[in-house]
Specification:
By secondary structure, this protein is of the alpha+beta class. It has one domain: 2-Layer Sandwich (Beta-Lactamase), CATH 3.30.450.20. The protein contains 6 helices and 6 strands, in the order αββααβααβββα. A 6-stranded antiparallel β-sheet has the order 3-2-1-6-5-4, with helices on both faces. Strand 4 and strand 5 form a beta hairpin. The protein is globular, with a radius of gyration of 14 Å. The termini are far apart.
Length: 134
């Protein structure tokens, strides 16, 4: 997964500002053909998923199920758009888990082979503190 995350980071148009808390920075690698998403412990925790299961790979639907209902359609539309042609992915949405709602900024890249999406690694950052009034 470290290699996948590094590849995704290199493919991004602009680097992600990681000057805020490092503990809120997570990585994922979605194997599109098997529909399994592999995540690091930070991402698993944010989504309320056991870190060991996240490392073993879970159906992408397990993660989408924790996206705020008002944000699912927008997330899925952004996901569909990038899996049609490949390229960069960038979106913001809320995650509902652990009796909490957190805002997430996600950025990644969808890799294609002969017009078919194959891998989709990326990063996410908990930006809740930036989204709350105050």
């Amino acid at each position: 997964m470290k290699v996948a995350a590094a590849e995704a980071y290199e493919c991004l148009d602009a680097p992600i500002d990681t000057s805020f808390q490092v503990k809120s920075f997570g990585m994922w690698d979605w194997d599109v053909s098997s529909n399994l998403a592999y995540v690091d412990p930070t991402t698993a925790g944010l989504f309320g998923i056991d870190p060991q299961l996240g490392a073993q790979g879970l159906d992408l639907g397990e993660f989408i199920g924790n996206i705020h209902p008002d944000d699912v359609a927008g997330f899925c539309a952004a996901l569909r758009a990038v899996t049609l042609h490949g390229g960069n992915f960038e979106t913001r949405y809320r995650v509902v888990a652990n009796d909490d709602v957190r805002w997430v900024y996600a950025k990644g890249a969808c890799f294609m082979s002969k017009g078919t999406p194959t891998r989709f690694p990326g990063t996410l950052v908990d930006v809740s503190d930036m989204m709350l009034p105050g």
